[in-house]
Amino acid sequence: MPAGPVIANNTPLAALWAIGRLGLLGDLFGEVLIPPSVRDEFLATGEPERRLALEAAPWLRCVAVSDQRRALAFVYLDLGEAESLALAEETSARLLVMDELKGRRLARRLGIPLTGTLGVLLLAKEKGLLPALAPVLDQLQECGLYLSPPLVAEALALAGESPSEPPA
User: Fold this and answer.
1) Would you call 81 exposed, middle or buried from its count of C-beta atoms within 10 A (0-12, 13-18, 19+)?
2) Beta-bridge mates of residue 95
3) DSSP count for the chain of H helices, then E strands
4) Could you give the CA distance from residue 115 to residue 118 in angstroms, rounded to a whole number?
């Protein structure tokens, strides 16, 4: 993987936190940067528990965008997505972890290397940090993250797995 930081947006942080797997980001990438708006968005719900999770993650560092005008140029995105993209551009990020479709489309146009929550989980399985992907995808969906059936099928195929069977 090229040099440069890894930048994360809120949805992957919140999704991984919800299933008790936030530490995968640190295990996979070392340091991960988030802009202040992403931190604030992450803390907007479940604040005491989420604040403790951030304090327990020294590999997760909040870094402000040095040129806020760069983020303001992405007016059609929410502030967290805009600042994540701007920070990725400013720092020549090696990877942006983002799930939101509009932000992903713009990241592709800007040439920013990109993955999402499922990409992080696939990499974690590949590196031996997860024994299986299917149960983790089930957990994500139980926590309220929408995953389209074709996306789940593609992720499981890439992981060499079949969909988990519903309990009897």
Assistant:
1) buried
2) 6
3) 10, 5
4) 8
Amino acid at the residue 61: R
Residues constituting the chain: 168
pTM above 0.90, yes or no: yes
**Residue ranges per structural domain of the chain:** 6-118
Query: Residue 97 — φ and ψ, nearest 5°?
Result: -105, 105
Q: Give me the tens of pLDDT residue by residue for the chain, a chain 168 residues long.
A: 467 899 999 999 999 999 999 999 999 999 999 999 999 999 998 889 999 999 999 999 999 999 888 888 888 899 999 999 999 999 999 999 999 999 999 999 999 999 999 999 999 999 999 999 999 999 999 998 889 999 999 999 999 998 765 443
Structure tokens at 126: 């590949």
Residue 44 is classified by DSSP as T
CA distance 75 to 42: 20
Write the DSSP string, 70-113.
HHHT-TTS-HHHHHHHHHHHHTT-SEEE---HHHHHHHHHHT--
Q: Which of 89, 158, 165, 166 is nearest to 123 (CA)?
A: 158
- CATH architecture assigned to 6-118: 3-Layer(aba) Sandwich (3.40)
